[in-house]
Protein backbone atom coordinates (compact mmCIF):
# COMPACT_ATOMS: atom_id res chain seq x y z
CA UNK A 1 0.00 0.00 0.00
CA UNK A 2 2.84 2.45 0.74
CA UNK A 3 4.20 2.07 -2.82
CA UNK A 4 0.72 2.62 -4.23
CA UNK A 5 0.24 5.74 -2.08
CA UNK A 6 3.57 7.20 -3.24
CA UNK A 7 2.71 6.54 -6.88
CA UNK A 8 -0.74 8.14 -6.56
CA UNK A 9 0.80 11.18 -4.84
CA UNK A 10 3.31 11.55 -7.67
CA UNK A 11 0.62 11.32 -10.36
CA UNK A 12 -1.52 13.87 -8.51
CA UNK A 13 1.36 16.34 -8.29
CA UNK A 14 2.21 15.79 -11.95
CA UNK A 15 -1.37 16.36 -13.09
CA UNK A 16 -1.97 19.49 -11.01
CA UNK A 17 1.39 21.01 -11.96
CA UNK A 18 1.24 20.27 -15.68
CA UNK A 19 -0.30 23.61 -16.61
CA UNK A 20 2.22 25.52 -14.50
CA UNK A 21 5.27 23.76 -15.94
CA UNK A 22 4.49 24.30 -19.59
CA UNK A 23 3.43 27.92 -19.38
CA UNK A 24 5.78 30.40 -20.98
CA UNK A 25 5.50 32.46 -17.81
CA UNK A 26 8.45 31.84 -15.50
CA UNK A 27 7.36 30.90 -11.97
CA UNK A 28 9.06 33.13 -9.42
CA UNK A 29 9.04 33.50 -5.65
CA UNK A 30 6.37 35.82 -4.20
CA UNK A 31 7.68 37.18 -0.88
CA UNK A 32 4.40 38.97 -0.08
CA UNK A 33 2.33 35.80 -0.34
CA UNK A 34 5.10 33.51 0.90
CA UNK A 35 4.75 31.07 -1.96
CA UNK A 36 6.92 29.69 -4.70
CA UNK A 37 10.52 28.51 -4.50
CA UNK A 38 13.72 30.49 -4.61
CA UNK A 39 17.24 29.22 -5.32
CA UNK A 40 18.83 32.28 -3.75
CA UNK A 41 18.45 31.21 -0.11
CA UNK A 42 21.69 30.06 1.51
CA UNK A 43 19.86 27.18 3.21
CA UNK A 44 16.79 25.33 1.96
CA UNK A 45 14.87 22.41 3.44
CA UNK A 46 12.59 19.73 2.10
CA UNK A 47 11.70 16.05 2.17
CA UNK A 48 11.62 13.12 -0.21
CA UNK A 49 9.66 9.93 -0.86
CA UNK A 50 10.66 7.21 -3.26
CA UNK A 51 11.41 3.66 -4.29
CA UNK A 52 14.62 1.66 -4.30
CA UNK A 53 15.93 -1.67 -5.44
CA UNK A 54 19.00 -3.17 -3.78
CA UNK A 55 21.30 -5.88 -5.08
CA UNK A 56 24.59 -7.54 -4.07
CA UNK A 57 27.71 -7.61 -6.22
CA UNK A 58 29.76 -10.76 -5.51
CA UNK A 59 33.40 -11.54 -6.23
CA UNK A 60 34.22 -15.24 -5.94
CA UNK A 61 37.34 -17.24 -5.10
CA UNK A 62 36.46 -20.16 -7.41
CA UNK A 63 34.45 -20.43 -10.59
CA UNK A 64 31.29 -22.05 -9.25
CA UNK A 65 27.68 -21.22 -10.03
CA UNK A 66 26.95 -17.58 -9.12
CA UNK A 67 24.64 -16.78 -6.25
CA UNK A 68 21.41 -15.45 -7.72
CA UNK A 69 20.04 -12.36 -5.96
CA UNK A 70 16.25 -12.01 -6.01
CA UNK A 71 15.49 -8.29 -5.58
CA UNK A 72 12.35 -6.68 -4.16
CA UNK A 73 11.15 -3.05 -4.35
CA UNK A 74 12.08 -0.97 -1.31
CA UNK A 75 10.76 2.25 0.16
CA UNK A 76 12.64 5.50 0.95
CA UNK A 77 11.66 8.51 3.05
CA UNK A 78 13.79 11.31 4.45
CA UNK A 79 14.70 14.97 4.83
CA UNK A 80 16.82 17.34 2.76
CA UNK A 81 19.17 20.12 3.81
CA UNK A 82 20.55 22.16 0.91
CA UNK A 83 23.48 24.60 1.15
CA UNK A 84 23.81 26.98 -1.82
CA UNK A 85 27.38 27.49 -3.04
CA UNK A 86 26.57 29.46 -6.20
CA UNK A 87 24.02 29.48 -9.03
CA UNK A 88 25.16 26.06 -10.29
CA UNK A 89 26.52 24.24 -7.22
CA UNK A 90 24.75 23.03 -4.08
CA UNK A 91 25.90 20.83 -1.20
CA UNK A 92 23.18 18.49 0.04
CA UNK A 93 22.60 16.35 3.11
CA UNK A 94 19.81 13.79 2.70
CA UNK A 95 19.33 11.65 5.84
CA UNK A 96 16.71 9.01 5.26
CA UNK A 97 15.20 5.66 6.17
CA UNK A 98 15.44 2.90 3.53
CA UNK A 99 13.75 -0.49 3.79
CA UNK A 100 14.64 -3.29 1.40
CA UNK A 101 14.73 -7.08 1.09
CA UNK A 102 16.97 -9.46 -0.88
CA UNK A 103 16.90 -13.26 -1.25
CA UNK A 104 20.04 -15.22 -2.07
CA UNK A 105 19.60 -18.41 -4.10
CA UNK A 106 22.57 -20.81 -3.93
CA UNK A 107 23.36 -23.52 -6.46
CA UNK A 108 23.93 -27.13 -5.40
CA UNK A 109 27.50 -26.85 -6.70
CA UNK A 110 28.26 -24.77 -3.60
CA UNK A 111 27.43 -27.86 -1.51
CA UNK A 112 29.62 -30.38 -3.34
CA UNK A 113 30.87 -31.92 -0.09
CA UNK A 114 27.49 -32.08 1.64
CA UNK A 115 23.85 -32.64 0.77
CA UNK A 116 21.67 -29.54 0.68
CA UNK A 117 17.99 -29.09 1.46
CA UNK A 118 15.77 -26.39 -0.03
CA UNK A 119 16.23 -24.31 3.11
CA UNK A 120 20.02 -24.50 2.71
CA UNK A 121 19.80 -23.08 -0.82
CA UNK A 122 17.92 -19.94 0.24
CA UNK A 123 18.97 -17.06 2.49
CA UNK A 124 16.86 -13.94 3.07
CA UNK A 125 18.58 -10.62 3.83
CA UNK A 126 16.22 -8.00 5.25
CA UNK A 127 17.72 -4.53 5.68
CA UNK A 128 16.54 -1.32 7.31
CA UNK A 129 19.09 1.43 6.71
CA UNK A 130 19.62 4.81 8.30
CA UNK A 131 21.17 6.33 5.20
CA UNK A 132 23.31 9.50 5.34
CA UNK A 133 24.63 10.85 2.00
CA UNK A 134 26.63 14.03 1.40
CA UNK A 135 26.15 15.06 -2.23
CA UNK A 136 27.33 17.73 -4.63
CA UNK A 137 24.58 18.89 -6.98
CA UNK A 138 25.71 20.43 -10.29
CA UNK A 139 22.89 22.22 -12.14
CA UNK A 140 22.53 23.75 -15.57
CA UNK A 141 21.10 27.20 -16.18
CA UNK A 142 17.37 27.32 -15.47
CA UNK A 143 15.25 26.95 -18.62
CA UNK A 144 11.85 28.52 -17.99
CA UNK A 145 10.47 26.29 -15.20
CA UNK A 146 12.97 23.42 -15.63
CA UNK A 147 16.48 22.98 -14.28
CA UNK A 148 18.33 19.69 -15.02
CA UNK A 149 21.20 18.57 -12.79
CA UNK A 150 23.62 15.77 -12.00
CA UNK A 151 24.53 14.74 -8.48
CA UNK A 152 27.27 12.66 -6.87
CA UNK A 153 28.96 12.04 -3.56
CA UNK A 154 29.54 9.59 -0.74
CA UNK A 155 27.28 8.06 1.89
CA UNK A 156 27.29 5.84 4.91
CA UNK A 157 24.51 3.64 6.25
CA UNK A 158 23.68 1.99 9.55
CA UNK A 159 21.81 -1.28 9.06
CA UNK A 160 19.32 -1.58 11.92
CA UNK A 161 18.53 -5.16 10.83
CA UNK A 162 22.16 -6.27 10.88
CA UNK A 163 23.01 -9.40 12.84
CA UNK A 164 26.76 -8.78 12.79
CA UNK A 165 27.21 -9.68 16.46
CA UNK A 166 24.97 -12.76 16.34
CA UNK A 167 27.04 -15.76 17.50
CA UNK A 168 25.04 -18.08 15.23
CA UNK A 169 25.92 -18.33 11.54
CA UNK A 170 24.60 -20.07 8.41
CA UNK A 171 24.88 -23.48 10.02
CA UNK A 172 21.95 -22.27 12.16
CA UNK A 173 20.25 -20.41 9.31
CA UNK A 174 21.71 -16.96 10.06
CA UNK A 175 23.24 -15.06 7.14
CA UNK A 176 25.23 -12.21 8.70
CA UNK A 177 26.17 -8.79 7.29
CA UNK A 178 28.08 -5.81 8.66
CA UNK A 179 26.27 -3.07 10.54
CA UNK A 180 28.02 -0.16 8.80
CA UNK A 181 28.51 0.36 5.07
CA UNK A 182 30.13 3.01 2.86
CA UNK A 183 29.01 3.89 -0.68
CA UNK A 184 29.55 6.30 -3.54
CA UNK A 185 26.54 7.62 -5.43
CA UNK A 186 25.87 9.09 -8.90
CA UNK A 187 22.61 10.32 -10.40
CA UNK A 188 20.63 12.92 -12.27
CA UNK A 189 17.28 14.69 -12.06
CA UNK A 190 15.33 17.79 -12.94
CA UNK A 191 13.97 20.61 -10.76
CA UNK A 192 10.39 21.60 -11.68
CA UNK A 193 9.36 25.04 -10.45
CA UNK A 194 5.73 25.29 -9.34
CA UNK A 195 3.75 28.14 -7.78
CA UNK A 196 3.82 26.71 -4.26
CA UNK A 197 6.98 24.59 -4.15
CA UNK A 198 9.77 23.00 -6.18
CA UNK A 199 9.19 19.37 -7.20
CA UNK A 200 12.19 17.20 -8.18
CA UNK A 201 12.10 13.67 -9.61
CA UNK A 202 15.55 12.05 -9.69
CA UNK A 203 17.27 8.71 -10.18
CA UNK A 204 20.49 7.74 -8.42
CA UNK A 205 22.77 4.72 -8.36
CA UNK A 206 24.48 3.50 -5.18
CA UNK A 207 27.69 1.42 -5.15
CA UNK A 208 29.19 -0.26 -2.09
CA UNK A 209 32.86 0.27 -1.21
CA UNK A 210 33.39 -2.08 1.73
CA UNK A 211 32.89 -5.84 1.99
CA UNK A 212 29.66 -6.45 3.96
CA UNK A 213 29.85 -10.21 4.49
CA UNK A 214 30.44 -11.73 7.94
CA UNK A 215 32.05 -15.13 7.32
CA UNK A 216 30.91 -18.32 8.99
CA UNK A 217 33.06 -19.95 11.64
CA UNK A 218 33.62 -22.96 9.40
CA UNK A 219 36.44 -22.04 6.95
CA UNK A 220 34.91 -24.32 4.29
CA UNK A 221 31.34 -23.12 4.80
CA UNK A 222 29.33 -23.62 1.58
CA UNK A 223 27.59 -20.27 2.16
CA UNK A 224 30.58 -17.97 2.64
CA UNK A 225 33.91 -19.70 1.87
CA UNK A 226 33.78 -19.03 -1.89
CA UNK A 227 32.84 -15.35 -1.52
CA UNK A 228 35.83 -13.02 -1.79
CA UNK A 229 33.70 -9.89 -1.31
CA UNK A 230 30.03 -8.93 -1.16
CA UNK A 231 29.10 -5.30 -1.80
CA UNK A 232 25.72 -3.61 -2.01
CA UNK A 233 24.59 -1.83 -5.14
CA UNK A 234 21.23 -0.24 -5.73
CA UNK A 235 19.13 2.35 -7.50
CA UNK A 236 16.81 5.03 -6.08
CA UNK A 237 13.90 6.86 -7.68
CA UNK A 238 13.10 9.78 -5.40
CA UNK A 239 10.47 12.53 -5.50
CA UNK A 240 11.59 15.64 -3.65
CA UNK A 241 9.49 18.55 -2.36
CA UNK A 242 11.10 21.87 -1.35
Notable characteristics:
single chain, 10 strands, disordered N terminus, Porin, 10-stranded antiparallel sheet, 242 residues, mainly beta, 1 helix
Fold blueprint:
Elements: H1 2-21, E1 43-60, E2 68-71, E3 73-84, E4 89-93, E5 96-105, E6 122-139, E7 146-159, E8 180-193, E9 198-208, E10 227-241
| Level-2 CATH architecture | Beta Barrel
Structural class assignment: mainly beta
Give me the CATH fold name.
Porin
Query: In this structure, how is the largest beta sheet organized?
Result: 10 strands, antiparallel
Whole-number tally of structural domains: 1
CA radius of gyration: 22 Å
Taken in chain order, the helices and strands follow as HEEEEEEEEEE
Helix content: under 10%
- The helix tally amounts to 1
Name the overall outline. elongated
Number of strands: 10
Report the β-strand fraction as a percent range: over 45%
Q: For this structure, what is the CATH class?
A: Mainly Beta
Low-confidence stretches: 2-8, 10-19, 30-35
Mean pLDDT: 86
